[in-house]
């Protein structure tokens, strides 16, 4: 994900290659779960719980990866949405879990890039589940690219103040 250029000018119709790599890992994961299920008796909910844990971890990686973008255009945000949607569709099919747990966590983060300055501040105050670093990245590469330096600094100060309260 770190190697993907998010500051693109054209909307892509093809998702990024890292998505295919991640999906392949989940295919292997499913194979291992099936093999373990055949060799030991476990309650039926155990594979489901293992899938949920793996998917939640992967979804956290998506947000962390997106937050590492140094620059991001609207077209780059569209690519983020395309990548996550492709991942979500394929992993739902592999795992049999619909909807994927924690999908809203990733989708909300991507959508927050499009918010206005006022809406971004409100969103930051409401969404305490994201790290300060992730929120700062959202401000700098999202709304921060469209507002004054002073306004950007004010939003970053809001994040710092919220972090001190944790």
UniProtKB/TrEMBL annotation:
Residues 2-160 form the Syndetin C-terminal domain. GO terms for molecular function: SNARE binding. It comes from the Eukaryota. GO terms for biological process: endocytic recycling; retrograde transport, endosome to Golgi. GO terms for cellular component: cytosol; EARP complex. This is Syndetin. It comes from Geodia barretti.
